[in-house]
Design brief:
Blueprint lengths: L1 E11 L5 E12 L15 H9 L6 E6 L2 E2 L4 H7 E4 L11 H11 L4 H14 L3 H4 L11 H12 L4 E4 L3
Parallel strand pairs: 5-6
Antiparallel strand pairs: 1-2, 1-3, 3-4
Helix pairs in contact: 3-4, 3-6
Length: about 160
């Protein structure tokens, strides 16, 4: 669950003027719900996500992930949250299988657990054609498939934040 209460971020510009990026934002996302942050460029969406993840401290208010305050326990929050951004950020010279196993290792998942999850996710996310005997680099995949692959990488997290362009 994500809980955001009166979350505010004010930046000071080079001219010493205050720029309010997020202004007293409050919302709650319960387990199993899908929630969207919509708005034009500069509306504060990315700043909000950074504060939820504990990457940026709010000027006031707070964000919690599964009861953990992001500003007080940022490392634990990051362990519980998977993020798929609008630019998937996947390594272009790895095959789909290599990417999944690389990120599983990066997140501390054992090779055995990664192989098990891969077997579970393959039919669920229709990854078979991309994993079975394929040595193609991820540069040949569509952006939609790369996002699907990135979501597959993040499936074990309690909270998933996904950016959609």
């Amino acid at each position: 669950m994500i809980s955001v209460h009166e979350l505010t971020k004010v930046f000071v510009t080079n001219n010493q003027e205050e720029l309010v990026a997020v202004d007293h934002l409050t919302f709650c996302v319960r387990a199993g719900e899908v929630y969207g942050l919509l708005g034009p460029n500069g509306a504060g969406k990315t700043t909000t996500v950074r504060m939820i993840l504990g990457l940026l401290n709010p000027t006031s208010g707070y964000a919690e992930v599964e009861g953990l305050r992001s500003s007080e326990a940022p490392e634990e929050v990051k362990r519980r949250v998977g993020l798929v951004s609008t630019s998937a950020g996947l390594y272009q010279w790895l095959s789909a299988r290599e990417l999944l196993l690389f990120f599983a290792d990066l997140y501390g998942m054992s090779r055995e657990r990664a192989e098990t999850r891969l077997a579970e996710l393959t039919p669920l996310m229709d990854l078979g054609p991309f994993l079975e005997g394929s040595d193609e680099w991820s540069t040949v995949y569509t952006i939609d498939f790369l996002r699907q692959l990135a979501i597959a990488i993040e499936v074990d997290w309690q909270v998933l934040l996904a950016g959609i362009a």
